[in-house]
Specification:
single chain, alpha+beta, 53% helix, 6 strands
Length: 240
């Protein structure tokens, strides 16, 4: 495995240790592999390839990126030559992989039971969505994750109020933006730079260093930022 210091384009995030974030190009590389192999499996009739894809996704999800063959190919061959892309929250693409695993598993079972049309349809669905994500960046599974995160936030009480003592701000100090982020997240850095440039009063919460606050307030995606009143009431959502 390459080390950051030995690369012509140094990494800011270690792909095998910083698992809460990921190079945004890595999922698209993986989606290309999934899309192409799924299409080949359906067109050629070699449906066991779908089962192999499902097994590969399951192994990668269970045992980390070191055991995901497309991930290793990206991080060891592609990224060192072309550099690191924007760093993003790894939870949406991970959820997308879980969805892909479920559909590929269902397709494999359908083929095994002789339901060829159903199996082919599910295989083509995975292929189409994976290739769409690879080419355009639109990831249906990631959007489902974000939608679910929003729904959880609407139903829950987490972001209706933030205890000012949790963020080190005395009550009565005035409106404050609370930004939950990760130090390696590109969009998180951009957000805080924009807040700083605009002269906004904000507190940055590193979810890696303060995981208990991320759990307490149900932060399902970074960056997430809200504006809170002097008494801790959330009065506006700024990001996330």
């Amino acid at each position: 495995m390459s080390t950051p210091d030995s690369l012509p384009h140094p990494r800011t995030a270690d792909p095998y240790r910083d698992l809460d974030v990921i190079d945004s190009r890595a999922p698209r590389f993986n989606q290309t592999a999934v899309g192409v192999v799924s299409l080949l499996a359906v067109v050629s009739g070699l449906w066991p390839l779908l089962a192999l894809l499902a097994a590969q996704l399951a192994i990668g999800l269970r045992f980390s990126r070191r055991y995901c063959l497309p991930c290793v190919a990206y991080f060891e061959i592609v990224q060192p030559r072309f550099g690191e892309g924007p760093i993003e929250d790894s939870r949406p693409p991970r959820f997308a992989n879980q969805v892909g695993l479920a559909v590929l598993g269902a397709a494999s079972v359908a083929y095994l039971l002789g339901l060829t049309t159903l199996g082919a349809g599910l295989g083509l669905l995975v292929s189409g969505l994976a290739l769409l994500a690879a080419v355009t960046g639109f990831c249906a599974g990631c959007q489902l994750y974000r939608l679910g995160a929003r729904l959880r936030g609407i139903r829950g009480r987490e972001l209706r109020r933030i205890e000012m003592a949790d963020i080190g701000v005395a009550e009565g100090s005035g409106d404050t933006i609370v930004a939950f982020g990760h130090p390696l997240c590109t969009d998180c850095t951009t957000l805080t730079d924009e807040l700083r440039a605009a002269g906004r009063r904000f507190v940055n919460i590193d979810v890696r260093a303060r995981p208990e606050l991320a759990r307490k307030y149900g932060i399902a995606l970074v960056p997430t930022a809200v504006e809170v009143a002097a008494d801790g009431r959330v009065i506006a959502r700024v990001a996330g």
